[in-house]
Request: fold
Amino acid sequence: MTLAATLVPTPEISIRDKNAKSGIVYFGANTPAVHEALDLLVEADRLAPGRSEILHRMALLFDERGNPKRALELAEAALAARPEDVALHAARVQFLLRLDRRDAAKQALDAALELDGAARELQQLRRRLLD
Reply:
C-alpha cells in the first residue's frame, strides 16, 4: 500500500435505489482524518486558547460534521479575537443560514459588507440571501 493510499480516506458510497445508475461518493465528515484533525485542533486550542485561526478551523470541521450550532459558537469566539476577518464573517453567515436563521444571517452579512463590500465570498452570500 502506498503512502497516498493510507492518507486518502475510504469513501462512503450512498445509492438511493439499487437500480440507480449514479450515487454519491463522499469523503467527508465521518472519515478518520476529519476526526483526527478535530482532535488535533482541540489539543491546539488547549495549548493556545482563543487563537482565532484554530477556532475557525474547528468551526469548519464541526459544520462539515453536521453541527452548525457548535460551528457558529466557535466562529463567534474567533470573531471576538479577529473582528476584521472577512472569512470568519462569511463562515458565520453560512452557519446562521444552515440553522435557518435568515434574519440574523442578513444582519451578519450587512455588518461584514461594511468591512469589505467587494469580497467575493460575501457577494456570493448576498446573492444567496436575495434569492
